[in-house]
Design brief:
241 residues, six-stranded antiparallel sheet, 2 helices, extended, mainly beta, Immunoglobulin-like
Length: 241
């Protein structure tokens, strides 16, 4: 970085032929200024160790197609999955060489639980895609767990039907808005009342919204254990919102 201090103040005593002299020059360097060369006496190369550069890679979950960039190895795969879903929710880690599975890092739900198997497929020639198929009848589409209020939702999907398992405090209502980051997105929401009654709503921004025609079918009886209610439901993949 060079600070231009040349030819700023007009003075009859200036050494410059046009009558200008440099200014904004520290006293400590004034006596060393050679006005005849026309260069600034202040040339700096600022350096600091207070600012560091770091690169953070973030993985995402695909439910169809193939990953545009594969994770480098099994260790990176397993670490990324634990960061995405939580280490406590990873049931197992396995490395395979299988043309029937998508290549690279795979997240597979453990049926009937909120856990996942982490699989690294080292077969680089595999052309299999992520998503539902005849051999993969269920793939997780979304998962969240709020441990402090004992609330969670798990979604599994096949070609035509989605299974939804929700948990929340028994005796109090809880709900989940889907495909949204805030109520301002007017999401489709599933609400479970304190007695287990299920309703579906299209929420408003900071409002209860409107009740929708029910598309959900309850599967079996609710499970209530330790003050936590678990409700299992199904609905068509293609439905009203």
């Amino acid at each position: 970085m060079q600070i231009d201090t040349h030819n700023r103040n007009y003075s009859k005593l200036a050494t410059d032929v046009n009558g200008y002299e440099p200014w904004f020059v520290p006293d400590s360097v004034k006596e060393y200024v050679d006005h005849s060369i026309g260069l600034s006496p202040l040339i700096e190369c600022p350096c600091t160790d207070r600012i560091t550069r770091s690169i953070q890679n973030q993985s995402s979950i695909l439910t169809s197609g193939t990953c545009p960039a594969l994770l480098a190895d099994e260790a990176t795969c397993f670490t990324s999955i634990k960061e995405l879903v939580g280490a406590d929710n990873v049931a197992s880690t396995t490395t395979v060489d299988d043309t029937g599975l998508p290549k690279g890092c795979i997240l597979s739900p453990v049926k009937g639980t909120l856990n996942f198997d982490a699989i690294y497929n080292s077969n680089e020639s595999s052309e299999s895609m992520c998503g539902p198929s005849e051999s993969i009848v269920s793939k997780v589409r979304g998962f969240t767990a709020l441990d402090d209020v004992k609330t969670s939702i798990s979604l599994s999907i096949d070609a035509a039907t989605v299974q939804i398992v929700v948990t929340g405090p028994d005796g109090g209502w809880f709900g989940f808005g889907l495909d949204a980051s805030s109520m301002a997105d007017f999401p489709y929401a599933i609400i479970v009342d304190g007695d287990g009654t299920i309703s579906e709503r299209k929420l408003e921004n900071h409002g209860p919204g409107t009740v929708l025609e029910s598309q959900l079918v309850r599967v079996g009886e609710d499970k209530v254990e330790g003050g936590v209610r678990t409700v299992t439901m199904t609905r068509d993949v293609d439905g009203k919102r």
